[in-house]
Amino acid sequence: MKRILFGLGLSILATVTILAYSLRSDAQAQSSDAAANSPAVQRARKTVKMLDDIYKTAVVLITDKYVHNEDDFPAGSAAVALFDAISKKGWHKVRLIDATGEPYEAKNVAQDEFEKEGIRQLKSGKDYYEQQVTIDGKPMLRAITPIPVVMQKCVMCHEHYADAKEGEPIGAISYTLTIE
Ligand code: HEC
Fold it and tell me: pLDDT per residue over 40-99, tens digit each?
């Protein structure tokens, strides 16, 4: 009898423990979902959207107004220099990368798994790809946006852009910023 009671007690204890654990992991899943869309994450996404618009508008404007032939200083080079300066100052990390497999400069390519997956997603038709990561203990948002062939002038230096299909991205901008 004692043994049966002991066995029963154990199984009740086991059931309660399993139940408690499953409730706890539910709560954790919910809280990580909430964190994935917290106001701080939404602010970081909005900042990416704003920066993306500013940077792309500047590249188009510079190409339109200042670049007349192949010897002029390209907006792509200006963007790379600007992005290096901004990244060094610590505002956010930003890179201009190729999506065609034929970059003008070998260094301007997807460098890590996030950027490689991002390029795959953009080439399959997505207009945005992101991931939330922890870098040096800080929550960060990584995001990547496409660059289509926006102007005929782009082909002047990047000849193979002429082969790009309508709307197909030939490049991308990769962002890493603190979620705060
Ligand atoms: C005058 C020549 C020229 C024109 C016009 C030009 N680019 Fe570039 N582009 C370059 C050069 C040079 C680089 C390499 C910059 C560097 O790394 O310093 C580059 C780099 C890039 C990159 C990074 C990947 C790579 O190929 O290295 C992208 C994306 C890009 N350009 C897109 C564009 C788009 C879109 C346009 C039209 C709005 C454009 N470019 C117009 C010369 C040009």
Answer: 999 999 999 999 999 999 999 999 999 999 899 998 999 999 999 999 999 999 999 999
C-alpha span between 64 and 110 (Å, rounded): 27
Which of 77, 84, 161, 174 for a ligand 1 pocket mutation test, highest count of atoms within 8 Å of Cβ?
77
What pLDDT is recorded for position 11? 55
How many whole angstroms separate alpha carbon 99 and alpha carbon 123?
A: 8
The amino acid at residue 60 is: V
User: Using a 6 Å cutoff on CB, does residue 58 contact ligand 1?
Assistant: no
Q: Tally the C-alpha atoms within 13 A of residue 4's C-alpha that lie toward its C-beta.
A: 1
56: number of Cβ within 10 Å: 16
